[in-house]
Sequence to fold (440 residues):
Amino acid sequence: MLRKIIFQIFALNFVLLTSAQSAESGGMPQLNPEFWISQVFWLVLTFGILYLVLSKLVLPKISDNLETRKSQILENIETAEKQREESEDKIKQFEKIILESKIEAKNYFNDRRQEVLEDINKKRIALEKDIDDEISAVEEEINKLKNTSGEKITKIAIETSSDLINQLIGEEVNNSSISAIVEDQSRKNKERQHDI
Amino acid sequence: MAANPMYQFNVYRIGPEIKLGEVDISFTNASLFMVISSLTILIIFNLSTKKKSLIPDKLQLLAELSYSFVSKMISDTAGSKAKPYFSFIFSLFMFVLFCNMFGMIPYSFTVTSHIIVTFVLAAFIFIGVTIIGFIKHGLGYLKLFVPSGVPLILLPLIVVIEIISYLSRPISLSVRLFANMMAGHTMMKVFGGFVISLGIVGGWLPLSFSVALTGLEILVAFLQAYVFAILTCIYLNDALNLHH
Fold:
């Protein structure tokens, strides 16, 4: 209902307005040529000035600025790329240095170990030689002592025996007979030892 | 008579009558809005290009975005050969856009709603494009009217149609913009009149229509400026890259 009323009013209004307008000015003001030349003149003037100012002053500035920004960005990207490559090189160098120093450290360690081992070996050999020398010297001494000990024991035995006999009997006995007896005894002892 | 929806398109003299010989070139409300639109464009773009910073502020961004918008439009439709005409198409787009947009302010005047203004622009473009075409291709530009791959019998008809369509370009270009602007503003005026005549009881419906129409008209104002500029690019493309 309401819509119908509105439509009726719309139609009525339109008819009224169009009739009123056509009665008033005889059509569209656009088709009235009174100010056509004035409009064209002012259009050419304003648009001409606008075109001249924009093309000579404003637009070159904008395009310049856009260009500089573009080139700046490209430059920055280039620099960033270069720096990235540099840092990659640096990383490679760093890794190489680490690897080299690791190898160096290993070599150094090995060398030192070798040296120490050699040193130890040398010292051990020297020590063993010393010990051997000492042992052989001592053995020699023992041998010498062994050799001389028999005679000394025999001599002591003879002296002791003669002293004993002297005290027991009170008489001097011939040394040579005593020594014969002692030697005989010691030979028997030796033989007994050998038997065992 | 303010109730007349066509009243808004009346042109009247502002200030004294200026005569150049016999010709009346008085400053009118139409002239005023042409000057206002041009000045606004120049002020905005001068301010936005004053400091050329690497990171743009809002105004500079506006200028650069509109620059790249028009630049992309031209290179998409007319190719790289149209570079020298960039300034003209940019000025044209901005001028039509700002005239349309200033027309959206209540009690203002819409410069582009006058057939004479749009026709002068369109005729200038038409003549300019035709001259460019003949300079670039000589008489070969006439090949534009002879599409390739058309049967010989149909050719006379096609050529006539092509010539008529070519010659009607300035009319279609100017009437499109003028009619869109005039129709939109008339419709808004009519609905605005309904709000008054229906009063507080029934006026809400046309009022809401008016609000919606305002949004639509702002869209149309932009769209028609864009269409005007892009058709100019297409005509320019025909003149620069003759391939039919």
